Fold:
Amino acid sequence: MANMRWNSGGDAAVTKRMIVLTVLMVMLMGAYASPVRRMMMADIKEQQRRNLLANGLGVTPPMGWNSWNHFNCKIDENIIKATADALISTGISKLGYTYVNIDDCWAEAARDDKGNLVPKNSTFPSGIKALADYVHSKGLKLGIYSDAGYFTCSKTMPGSLGHEKQDAKIFADWGIDYLKYDNCNTDNSKPTVRYPVMTRELMKADRPIFFSLCEWGDLHPALWGAKVGNSWRTTNDISDTWESMTSRADMNEVYAEFARPGGWNDPDMLEVGNGGMTKDEYVVHFSIWAISKSILYVCTAAVLLIGCDVRNMTKETMEIIANEEVISVNQDPLGVQATKVRMEGDLEVWAGPLSGYRVALLLVNRGPWRTSITGYWDDIGIPPNSVVEARDLWEHKTLKKRFVGNLTATMDSHACKMYVLKPIS
Structure:
């Protein structure tokens, strides 16, 4: 306290000068208080608009269901309602699958005389607002689809190019929670020109809407997407094959450093349950999407979005998409996307940090034979002499053995082993 004693000479003089200056500033501000205050308030509001996409949406990757991979254009309001019901009745909504997303083909081919999008009367006769109310009554969220072009990819309905303000407002009025924004039938301008137009209009809308950029990775949206949307596609569309799934995983992994809470890489929807891969391959699929902090949309992709028919899921599919331990890796609050830390031919080691000084480890055998794979501590960011406890996320058990320096596991062709590693000494 001795160093804080008052200097009655110089300090007092400085203080008097500060008081005089403050009084003068107050007097000057009095003359201009109203315009200055208006300018300050306008600036605050503008900053709030600019920061809308960092308003808490997408703190962890979104999870839910998307209609496209299983139903394509053959959707209607009854399917959407039944899917919402199924998310509740199966219990997976409690695991985080809360988005029910309508993809392409939901609107009439032409706008109304006021230029508004019109829900297709033959398939959505009750309208989107009523459907949103139904989905919200279940404690879930409704997503919708549009396009940064003149028509959507199916060419069955109008896109939003030139109608961004109008469409953003009507989406907000309907109670939409998520917008997937595609990239078909454009005016040939760059996505970096077209997508921010919708961003600005969504920021002005009186409702926070998760903005998913479906730009297919053409112009490397991971490099610019964080200022524009909450997620961005890093790949072209996925299909229900091992080759398609693994290639999307590879393309997405390149952009790992750009993923963070509020903005996620999206390698497209999960195909789990659609029938084109084996159970082991679907386990690999779900594991890579989870550790990659992808959007988990059932029967869709990395942001854990399911793309299958959740009304008729098999027990095998449920065992995969309802694995709470794997989901917890995807939803870990640290929000760091894993990367391939070692690759030897068809043998891959994926790893990424988790909260609580833990590490997620994924060993993937992409080859044709049963083999063993080793994850080394110095590859995955654990001090080399650490004693580590390993939790097997697919066997749901903590291994009795303690590991020092590395962990080795054996697995079949097109299979994987996934662990959470926790240093204990």
